[in-house]
Amino acid sequence: MSGAASPAGAEGDAAGEAPRPAPAAGGLDGILRLGEVDIRLSEARRRRRQAAEQAAPQEARVADARRTLERLAEQLKQGTLEAKRQEGDARAKQAEIEKTQAAINQCRNNDEYKALLEQLERRKAELSQLETAVLEAYEAQDRRQAEKAQLETRRKALEQDLSEARKRVAAATGEVDVQLAGLEAERAAARAALDAQHAAVYEKVLAQHGDSAVADIVDQFCQGCFVKVRPEQVSQVRGGQIVTCFDCGRILVFRGGRTA
Questions:
Q1: What is the pLDDT along the chain (260 residues), one digit of tens a residue?
Q2: Are 24 and 257 in contact (CB under 8 A)?
Q3: Are 31 and 214 a contacting pair, CB within 8 Å?
Q4: In this structure, are residues 57 and 129 in contact, taking their beta carbons and an 8 Å threshold?
Q5: What does pTM read for this prediction?
Q6: How many C-beta atoms lie closer than 10 Å to residue 95's C-beta?
Q7: What share of the chain is helix, strand, coil (3-state, %, to 5)?
Q8: Residues 6+ apart with CB under 8 A from 10
Q9: At what angle do helices 27-52 and 196-209 cross, to 10 degrees?
Q10: Using alpha carbons only, what angle is made at residue 205 by residues 201 and 207, rounded to the nearest 5 degrees?
């Protein structure tokens, strides 16, 4: 199979057709022109994607700072609840001490007195531990508050960096968007210069490969897949026919797009 198009397959030469008015170009010249535009269009789209991603590092740093602040805010909330719980335990323990002290003052024998005194000392020790825990809890809260203040300052600085990065992205993408608009218009004109059959062949091959629908023949090798082109296909390309590589399916042309 040569890969040359049949009349119904959109791949024949332009023999017998009236010449298109300049600058429109049919056949291989027109396909090559469209292919060159598509290459530039693909490159411009790549540049736009890269430009749009320029603020990604700043976006990530700001997101990380915000997540850290959220975790710290939750820690502060839980820390406050824990400190209040411990304060409640300390108050309850103080009430137990006062009750034990009152019982000591009313005890009637030595054994009861000794037992209550031991209980009082034990509860005082427990109260001391609770008061230490309360103090440590509030000290931890103070450290978290200081850390939060530092993080808030850092977050604001990072958000300022992000704002500047977004401005640069907007400027860069805006510039590329102007180029893209021009290339899209150029592509539309180049495609309109092709007859419907040739355009259909080109678009089908482009959809298959995504990067380029056209491949040069160099030293009888397809530069799209580096498989040797069949001699009859070389002759067909030289004769101006639309021929696709039997291996990769790209439209074959000679370097510079010339068929002679």
A1: 345 443 333 333 333 333 333 333 457 889 989 999 999 999 999 999 999 999 999 999 999 999 999 999 999 999 999 999 999 999 999 999 999 999 999 988 899 999 999 999 999 999 999 999 999 999 999 999 999 999 999 999 999 999 999 999 999 999 999 999 999 999 999 999 999 999 999 999 999 988 789 999 999 999 999 999 999 999 999 888 899 999 999 999 986 444 33
A2: no
A3: yes
A4: no
A5: 0.64
A6: 11
A7: 70, 5, 20
A8: 196, 197, 198, 199, 200, 201, 242
A9: 40
A10: 115
3-state DSSP call for residue 212? coil
Domains in the chain: ranges and CATH: 7-17+195-257 (no CATH), 56-189 (1.10.287)
SS (H, E, C) 28-83: HHHHHHHHHHHHHHHHHHHHHHHHHCCCHHHHHHHHHHHHHHHHHHHHHHHHHHHH
The three-class DSSP label of residue 244 is strand
C-alpha span between 200 and 211 (Å, rounded):
17
